[in-house]
From TrEMBL:
This is Chitin deacetylase. Residues 123-314 form the NodB homology domain. Residues 1-23 form the signal peptide. The lineage of its organism: Eukaryota, Fungi, Dikarya, Ascomycota, Pezizomycotina. GO terms for biological process: carbohydrate metabolic process. The keyword Transmembrane helix applies. The keyword Metal-binding applies.
Amino acid sequence: MRLRRPFTALFAGSAAPIALVAGHSLENDGPQQRPTVVKRAGAGAGCGPSAGNAICDAGLCCSEGGFCGTGGAFCSGPACQLSYGPGCDGNQVPAGTSTSNTPRPKFGNVPYGVDISHCSVKGQVALTFDDGPYIYTPELLDTLKRNNVPATFFIVGNNAGKGQVSDPTSGYTPIIQRMIADGHQVGSHTWSHQDMNAITPQQRRAQIINNEIALVNILGVIPTYFRPPYTRCGADCYQLLGELGYRVVNYDVDTRDWENGGANSKSVYQSIISQSSPAVSQWLSLAHDVQEFTVHSLAQFMIDTAKNLGFQLVTVGECLGDPPSNWYRDPSTGQPRDARGATPPPPQRVPTTSSSSTGKSSSTSAPKPTKIAETNFRLDAPPITTSGTGGNTTSSRVVSSASSRAGSSTSTPGVVSTRVPDIGGRRAVPMQEYIPATRVGGSVTLGLVLGLACMVLFWAGG
Ligand SMILES: *[C@@H]1O[C@H](CO)[C@@H](O)[C@H](O)[C@H]1NC(C)=O
């Protein structure tokens, strides 16, 4: 099989300083490997690529705009530059037992380490919500409960300066526990919502493991479902996720609820899922519970629309025909473990390393999550090129995806090599796409796409 590695250049740029800090060399064996003096930077000084790759002093964060400091404007993920800011929220490690030695047996029929963009059970719609939990999430849970609808949440453990979700003072622990109690599925969406293609292999692994530690603290289990932020996951990323026992879930309905306050989300969702009957179709939808519009309005609309068309609303695991015990693994044995009935370890105090300024008090009684600057959230929108926190414009962080989309390769049974463009819009570099067997036969979408491809080929050839 031929795997493309379009992001080598990016790694080379960011890996060098880390290699020096860590004292051993990484995958970067290019000509610039010659040891150089590490530039250090104190509070207020420049850091990162815009300042000669200077690394902030211990405890300091390197803001997106390239300055060392503390507090949410400097430290929150994913904006904080991990390689240059030792204090970045994304570099924090949650208290609790590391899962890095957990065995990763692969169980069930849903494949690991490949792109899964479609449900397989006809007549089902899986609603998924990314990037939370956040202050709106309890209201969404209320809505889902009122409608008796299960959904799937892809959790980010420490983004936007909201604090570590397993820190008892963050207020997020009971919200995630309620998800399980209410019958929803919980998957991982990384620790601090970094672009998995733009960080080093060590950072990529830590993004997965740290979120596992936090989720084990909260739920007592490790999820086996994962969605990469921005749907960006190159060959190395898919391989790692396969090794760590993850089913990599994308989507085929993109509500783009982060765009213009969700102005087009309802019509996009409706037009996609109403294009064929529940007898021949199934859908996997993407939205974000950090969006007020989504929680206040879109969620109910998505439920009503699907039900009115005769679809059944289910979790991602269910729409892939995977039983609930396979959605998680036991942190000690690695074996399948139903989250309902699993017990998390006793709460641990998180060392007060957090430099985020989320305005939380250190009170011990029933903490509530607090509202934070919503620009701190980096939704699964196209790569960021403009300013984020603190009003400072970032140096360009453009990562091309369109250029790495073309091409195709393998033919493992069940793993289809085509790059099926999503009807819902933007998609990024799937390495291999898994199309469930039940879908291959009768899929209107696939037929349409193949038909279109033939037309294009014929047209180009003539
Ligand atoms: C914004 O830029 C100013 C200098 O122009 C700098 O002092 C400050 O630390 C920067 N803030 C962030 C969050 O990068």
